[in-house]
Amino acid sequence: PKPTSSKKWSASARRMTPETAGGTSFRAIIAEGTPVVFDGAMGSTLYEQGILHTRAFEECNLTAAAKVKAVHLAFIEAGANVIETNTFGANKFTLGKYGLQNVAEIITAGVEIAKEAVAESGKGVWVAGAVGPTGEGAGFVDDDKLLEITEAYTVQIKAMVDAGVDIIMLETFTFLSEIKIALKVTKSLFAGPVIASMSFSDEMEQSNDYGPGKIGQMLAKWGADVVGVNCGGGWGRVGEGGPAAIYDVAEEMVKAVGASVPVIALPNAGHPKRVGHRNIYMATEEYFLVYAKRLYKSGVKMVGGCCGTKPHHICQVASAARMFGGGHHIAPQPAGDVSNSAPSKQRPKAHAAVARDAIPVGERTKLSCKVRRIWEQRLANGTRKQQPIGPEDFVVSVEVNPAPGLSTDKPMGVARMLRAAGVDVVNIADGPRATVRMSNTALAEAFQQQLEGCETIVHVCCRDRNLLGLMSDLLGNYTRNLHNLVVITGDPPKMGDYPKATAVFDLDSIGLLKLVKGLNGGVDPAGRDFGGQARFFCATGAEPGAVDYAREMKRLREKIDAGAEMIMTQPIYDAAVMRKFLDDVMQLPRPVPVLMGLCPLVSSRNAEFLHNEVPGMSVPQPIRDRMSAAGGGPSGIAEGVKIAREMLDEFKCEVVGCYIMPQLGKYEAAVSVLEALGYGTPEAVARRDAAH
Question: Residue 290 has what pLDDT?
């Protein structure tokens, strides 16, 4: 119910301050759907600097401004596009517990400190006014309490608006009734973008028994420009916090609100655990980074951190954002930037070279020749379903990656065994899961030199090399006869044994495909004729089970336009998902052949790990139940092979072949999956080679 004296605050609604230039530019980013990086925890970072919880952290805006600014600067340096003011608890109820009454003064100082940090950094960063719950929203809220809460938020929001924030961030609310009050006040006083974020717990009554999806829809209906979840998760993961729990909630919100409303996710660093005399947040940078990538890939547009997250966590979020087209370059220019105020002297442009027609796909490599023949003859360019006869009209690629250390003996032995079983091509990843191994091109060259007739397909990812390095490597690959490529964006760096590793991402997979397409036409990235014409055969990855499926298919169309000539899917365990994907591929303006990804599971633990911890992997519950019933050891491996065979049998008549990713060194399992097609025998080798 509305308070009878609501006129006391509604008059201020008629004096709404126009949104800032930063607010306008942030709205543009919302419309574009560009990934955004938010900062991490202010309170826990100040606590580590000696500010005890017996004081209000917001008071530091007056008593320890240098420390507050240092936290802002650290997050900006880590890659945050948005920093939140140190005003989360700056309301009369929370500050009153510490004997503080100067709410507006504390808020004004907090906004000014954040703006000073942005100016000092020299980077374009948005300032968001942080607003938390008052703590008075629990239970029944009568008219008097409603008016009191409303007046508290009015003071808080008005001070932020007057100080010039770009965005207002309502966060960590657990009661719908209270965030609705805060939203109403904010929308009456503030013309800029408003973010509304809930914190979920295991006590569903706090959110009126609504799930994350419904709550996201309600927040958007009440006027939030961005909706989301921050801090703990809890919903569906009893007693848990951290990125995994937040991911589950955010994923539901994305599905519920669709593309019309951006979703934000700010995980904490997990529940703190007592180690000696300290509370330690246990989510490592590596773990945080994996889930940042998963969140962006699921359709979440804004990711940052909450309790316990430090600049090194946000650095990894920024790394993940760059993989999806976000990062530092999306923010507005800092005030005073005059880089565009005067014309600069430019060197005259050289005349652009005219790209030649690419060498036909069927003439580039043995692999491309076989793929093209099967695509045209057995599958009639995708318009016909026809069972393969065997190795002669089915392509098999098996992933074999470098072993740690200097020796190639172990992977060489595996590649020799696979070749003897009839496998067409050995697939070698480029630093899979961002681990450090021998370069895949060195191993590929060793395979092709030491194993007669062996052909490889090497991954080229954008993570570790800038544009010049990628170009140099591609030219080197060509001279070493490494002409089959899988072009991918790549996983963010693993921050375990190599904490100083950084990601580059000058290009994403689409940009790299365009570069290779140019080389196939005899033109370098600068548009000049480079005195030759490459004959690379390019595949690209796709995730049929992507949470943001529309985005995945949009990018797939762009990859094909950029030069991809074959699709290699992530492992699939759900026939319905694969069916939809193949049908949709055929609806593309230019369908291309598909190698179906298969990953024979080896145990229940393996299945759970892939489902929960590996970005892009989804193992349905029925499959995990089967692996659980099978147990470990030989019975688990056998069940994993059976599951992979079932997928192969279902779709072998529609794909040119399969791409097998053995788990935990179980390469024999890959051959077992293929036995029904005639692989694993001496005859398979003869049939394969005759086809080439």
Answer: 82
Closest CA to 474 of 510, 519, 425, 533: 519
Sequence-distant (6+) residues with CB within 8 A of 638 are 630
- DSSP of 657-668, one letter per residue? EEEE--STT-HH
pLDDT digits (tens, 9 = 90+) for 624-676: 999 999 988 999 999 999 999 999 999 999 999 999 999 989 999 999 999 99
The answer to whether the CB of 588 falls within 8 A of the CB of 554 is: no
State mean pLDDT over 125-142. Answer: 87
At which residue do the structure tokens 């923010």 appear? 331
Beta carbons within 8 Å of 630's beta carbon, 6+ residues apart? 604, 636, 638, 639, 640
Average pLDDT over the chain reads 86
Helices 549-562 and 509-520 cross at an angle (nearest 10°) of: 20
For 446-560, where are the E strands, in sequence order?
455-461, 484-488, 537-542
Distance of alpha carbon 147 from the chain centroid:
42
What are all long-range contacts of 25-31, with beta carbons under 8 Å and residues at least 24 apart? Answer: 25/126, 25/331, 25/332, 26/126, 26/166, 26/167, 26/192, 26/193, 27/193, 27/225, 29/330, 30/193, 30/225, 30/226, 30/262, 30/301
CB-side exposure of 241: number of CA atoms within 13 Å?
21
- Residue with more model confidence, 365 or 496: 365
